[in-house]
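User: hey, got a sec? need unspecific monooxygenase folded
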Amino acid sequence: MSALLCSFLSHWHHYQSPDLSCQLLQFLYLPNLVVFLVICISSLLFLLAWRKMSGSGKLPPGPVAFPIIEDTLLLNMKNFAKYGPIFTIHLGSERVVVLCGYEIMKESLIGLGEEFSGRGSMPIFEKSTKGRGINFSNGEQWKQLRRFSLTNLRNFGMGKKSIEECIQEETCFLMERLRNTHGGDCFMSPSDPTLFLTHALSNVICSTVFGDWFDYEDKKFVTLISLIQENDKLQHSLWTALHSFFPTLMDYIPGPYRRIFKKCSGSLDPNYPQDFIDVFLIKMGEQKNIPSEFNVESLARSAIELFVGGTGTTSITMKFGLLILLKYPEIEEKIHKEINCVIGQRRSPCMVDQSQMPYTDAVVHEIQRVIALVPLGVSRAVARDVHLKQYVIPKGTTIFPALKSVLYNSREFPNPEQFNLRHFLDENDAFKKSDFFMPFSVGKRICVGEGLARVELFLVLTTILQNCTIDSKSQVE
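Assistant: Yep! Here you go:
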């Protein structure tokens, strides 16, 4: 540092001339000044980050923190055991608490549900959502939106017989499309049915949220699906610029804007709401003269989140499920036998069949367990200072519930890396439930679409295997 200062002074003395301003400008481009500025700025950032990370001595311990260098590489299941059920890591300058294991999840997310009900800081998502919508809002806004959404989604069939009938109807279209692709035969090889699956699952949530069904060839629908698939690729990276995805997605969703225009033209009938958008607009009208969380921005965000959540995760799970069945043809053969015994070929599968099909039910559960689609869960935040074990977690601290640590618990699921149906079948081959099965998380922030996803996974998989045989010309790894 002193050498750089001496260099600066010598240059300053040398440039004492009438044309000082010109010479000073030349000095500003000198390499040593550039290095000097870089060192100063880096040191300042380092000190600020270190100070922020050292703000509380009551957080649980964790790996040694190196400011600016992120601990993302430490988020590996193999490293979890040595840090215990609760530990602190650093993502850049932010302190993050990781919850690892069933017991700590039960104690915190369920036992202290209200305290752990916040949504964690996710700057990339915040840029696009602005803290609105069902998933990314907090406080009273989130409570109102979630309560309203759950109530009205149930009213439009979610969790009822009507949504089951909707899924059955859509799977009929799916089977017809698959048969047409194979010239009347539904022997699923070698084509990839992923796109058709996404179309079918998207139409189910579209009918509930937007009141619309789409033809699989509809250009806007195809564009929308491609954006959903792109989001599926990006969502596993926290640092990917997803904010560029959501604004584009909004342009291709016809429901919100069509409904808003319908309201403006006076054609919305408050007595006969047809979908989630309609009831939201009615609620907006009821609260238009008072400060309210029900506004156009919250409507758009909520509709997008319901659509993306109701399409992406379930279609990915189905895709991995079919790949797993390709790897284990003996499992597929047993499912075929169970379908023929319980359902036959003359009617569509229904949810009543699930209790009589323990083997198929176990397959659906084990698929979700082994793929652990969201291994670290979606970030949460503590709504106020909270005591957990011997630690004090300050208000606003980001929490990551490591769901995979529960789904891969070796005591509950021996040899968790292996696909083993005994994880959900007892010695009598009856289905056995497990409290450790939490792919949709637990507590007050549990996935809004959990019920829909469970019905879709069972009905779509059984319908496909009732009508199709899955095979591959190449060996599946």
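Quick note: The mean pLDDT is 78. Let me know if you need anything else on unspecific monooxygenase.
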